[in-house]
Amino acid sequence: MPITSKYSDEKVEQILTEIAAVLDKHSAGPELSLMIAGNIATNVLNQDVAPSQRKVIAEKFAQALVSSIEDKSH
């Protein structure tokens, strides 16, 4: 069953485009871009998620990340 988001694809793409432009402006390569993305995820978890839920949400996030990059051809 596909996962449905309460956010429109258009909204997500708009934000991603703006973030990509900032990273490009600062010539952030893959390593720095991933470090920044990780810091954003950590900050969101620490600021907006109850301490009792942080690990569970972080694990789900990590699983979703791995699933999104797995080779779908096999």
UniProtKB/TrEMBL annotation:
Superkingdom as given in the UniProt entry: Bacteria
A Pfam match: DUF1414
Family: Belongs to the UPF0352 family.
Name by which UniProt lists this protein: UPF0352 protein AKJ31_06280
Source species of the chain: Vibrio hepatarius
